Amino acid sequence: MLTVSLFTFNPFQENTFLLHNEKGKAIIIDPGCYFSAEQETLKNQILRLGVTPVQLLATHCHPDHVFGAKWAAKYYNLELYLHPEEEIILQGAGTFALRYGLGFDTYKGPLHFLNEGDTIQLDEDELQVILAPGHSPGSICFYSPRQNFLIGGDVLLYESIGRTDLPLGNSEQLLASIRQKIYTLPDDTVVYCGHGPATTIGHEKAHNPYVRPLPV
Questions:
Q1: Could you report the per-residue pLDDT of 22-48, keeping only the tens digit for each?
Q2: Is 0.70 surpassed by the pTM of this model?
Q3: 3-state SS assignment for residue 41
Q4: Residue boundaries of the structural domains of the chain
């Protein structure tokens, strides 16, 4: 059974996630800790829980989601997992962040690529990888069918969607991803978003003004 902890970090108010099981193993997803105090917040929570991070995942590699990737990888001796289409986004993250006056050292360690249909295994628990591009070319979501939740990155937000005006964004592709990949999940699926509060598939299908389900 996975327990989800959420931290809101950096000037973009990005949501970083820590998932852990009863055996003391944990997964860090989208480490957005930019300031040293934010690194301490994540580190202290991991210490309080008494867990050990064993994987480092990225839904996508816009700067606000990988500000802490280099730190987390070094501190916990981890390597980054992402979709192959996100490698170019990761490479440009440091330069892009300078537009906002937020310099940082981009993660440059080994990369491990995740694709549609892959699974992330943490003992008996698993997360299915769903490719949902549009906000970013290789945006992926992590779905737990057993516990009925989705770590969705910036694909679907509470009554909103991820922006598509960033490099390699595509609005038509994002809408298609949501309708074809996300809205097909059960309505009671909890969506943990990359920004803002959590939501459910059913709520978004009924109330999201940007993307409605296609008529049956």
A1: 999 999 999 999 999 999 999 999 999
A2: yes
A3: helix
A4: 3-207
